[in-house]
Design a protein that fits this description.
Blueprint: H1 2-11, H2 18-34, H3 48-58, H4 64-72, H5 75-78, H6 83-90, H7 92-101, H8 114-128, H9 131-145, H10 152-172, H11 176-190, H12 192-224, E1 228-235, H13 238-246, E2 255-261, H14 264-277, E3 279-280, E4 286-287, E5 300-306, E6 309-317, H15 318-326, H16 328-331, H17 338-349, H18 352-358, H19 363-373, E7 378-382, E8 388-392, H20 397-404, H21 406-409, E9 412-417, E10 420-422, E11 434-438, H22 455-467
Parallel strand pairs: 2-6
Antiparallel strand pairs: 1-2, 3-5, 4-5, 5-6, 7-8, 9-10, 9-11
């Protein structure tokens, strides 16, 4: 059976050179021997789990280091093999990833801190090498696919953790397909009736949207044939659709038409065609090609009226569609050095992890704060010069100022939001334009701590107050 599994895995890989395939076979044999005799809750040999994790990552053309780490990710935690043996056999990079994925022994920490300590360990390892998080997300996805065999009391907390931690972490890494499946599985276990109702609602509206799409697709392709290479409609993933409907969005907001063009410049030509054919909705065009908010979402969003129904278009080039589909592995493909991987890892996860750690005393506090700082839904706020500041939802002008420039923030007297004067404790919203006004003297006060939501702002204010 093991040989058949190995050959089946190798046959699915068409992008690695022969030498790397041979390394993967060695890792497979090593993992199989280490897990020999172990069974999963499904009754299958344990080796089927790391193989499944590896296969999930194959869809993203993950590099050989990631694939070997996926095969070995449970070896140190669940067998007698020490991390030094992983290092000796497969090298320092694989050993560091496996170590980052290995949970601490339960008997060595307090029971109430166990989960928080492992969360902290995982995130700090991911800041050094983002592939740690990628393997963990794939590991969680396979466990969610097989969650049905678990006891009922295990399913709900596991599904809830998937939605509040692993789904937003997948989004940070641009692993959108994995995020969608994680959310759909988690939602189906947490609230089966609502899951079923939303699925029915979305399917019913799909019939209506198909007609809208069919009518406009012919017109758009006729006008844009020289530069539009693909046109298709899709919908917002199920769990995100549920969340948006809870926020009183219309059903039409959950469906959109993808327009793929030959180049970035063609995106603007396609936008012109769409706006020529259909009346644009006011203030509904967002250009994330010119103003980048994510390395994975380089696109133009616009809404137009078609038969008095708002229709959402997303326009991106073929190259940017490839980046979207590949996620973090599109950034990892070019044989990066460890220094470059660490820089990339820090860029994707931001400085939130280190900032939160600096103001917390326990792993539990860290876990609570990081869930807001890193995993809260992110919004884009602009300076008057249209520089982008990314902040978690719920952030205030104070958070904006310290994220922009701590030297400016410390002398902030008041601010304008979208041209209107606002107190500095005002909560900002997605797409707001914020202008900071300053004086010549320090303005920081203890009251600011009550309104600072981000760890960066809280830490900076605390340090300034100590100086004063």
């Amino acid at each position: 059976m093991a040989d058949a599994l190995k050959e089946g895995l190798i046959k699915k890989i068409d992008y690695l050179p022969r030498k790397e395939l041979e390394l993967l076979k060695v890792a497979f044999d090593f993992a199989e021997e280490a897990h020999d005799g172990q069974k999963r809750a499904t009754g299958e040999p344990y080796i089927t789990h790391p193989i499944a994790v590896c296969e999930i990552l194959l869809a993203y053309h993950a590099d050989i280091t990631t694939l070997i780490s996926a095969l070995l990710h449970d070896v140190v935690e669940d067998t007698s093999v020490p991390i030094l043996e992983i290092d000796r056999r497969f090298g320092e990079r694989v050993a560091e990833i496996v170590e980052g994925l290995t949970k601490v022994e339960k008997g060595k920490v307090r029971k109430e801190e166990y989960s928080a300590i492992n969360t902290e360990k995982l995130l700090f390892a991911s800041v050094k090498d983002i592939r740690v998080a990628a393997v963990k997300i794939a590991d969680r996805l396979h466990n969610m696919r097989t969650l049905a065999v678990k006891r009922v009391e295990k399913k709900v907390p596991y599904a809830n953790e998937t939605l509040i931690f692993f789904s937003p972490l997948a989004e940070k890494l641009g692993l959108y397909k994995l995020q969608e499946e994680l959310e759909e599985l988690g939602f189906s276990y947490l609230n089966p009736p609502k899951f079923k109702n939303i699925k029915t609602l979305m399917n019913n509206y799909s019939n209506i949207f198909t007609k809208i799409y069919n009518n406009c697709a012919i017109e758009i392709m006729k006008e844009g044939a020289p530069f539009i290479t693909e046109l298709k409609w899709t919908k917002v993933p199920l769990y995100q659709s549920y969340s948006l409907l809870q926020e009183e969005h219309d059903l039409a907001d959950l469906f959109f038409i993808n327009v793929i063009t030959k180049s970035k410049m063609d995106c603007y030509t396609a936008l012109g065609v769409i706006h020529k054919l259909y009346k644009p909705s006011l203030h509904q065009m967002v250009d994330n090609i010119a103003i980048e908010i994510s390395p994975f979402l380089k696109q133009i969003n616009t809404k137009v009226l078609i038969n008095n129904i708002e229709v959402h278009f997303i326009i991106k080039s073929e190259k940017d569609r490839e980046i979207y589909d590949a996620g973090v592995f599109g950034l990892l493909r070019n044989g990066l050095t460890m220094e470059e991987i660490r820089a990339l890892s820090g860029d994707l996860l931001g400085d939130s992890i280190h900032a939160v750690k600096s103001i917390t005393n326990t792993p539990i506090e860290f876990e609570e704060l990081i869930s807001f700082e890193l995993l809260q839904r992110e919004m884009t706020v602009f300076t008057p010069k249209m520089d982008v500041i990314a902040l978690p939802e719920g952030s205030t002008i104070i958070d904006f100022a310290f994220s922009l420039n701590p030297q400016i923030a410390r002398k902030m007297s008041n601010a304008k939001v979208n041209g209107e004067w606002k107190p500095i404790h005002t909560v900002v919203h997605d797409m707001d334009i914020v202008e900071i006004c300053t004086t010549s003297k320090e303005m920081v006060s203890f009251d600011w701590l009550n309104y600072a939501q981000t760890s960066k702002a809280y830490k900076a204010i605390s340090e300034l107050l100590k100086i004063q």
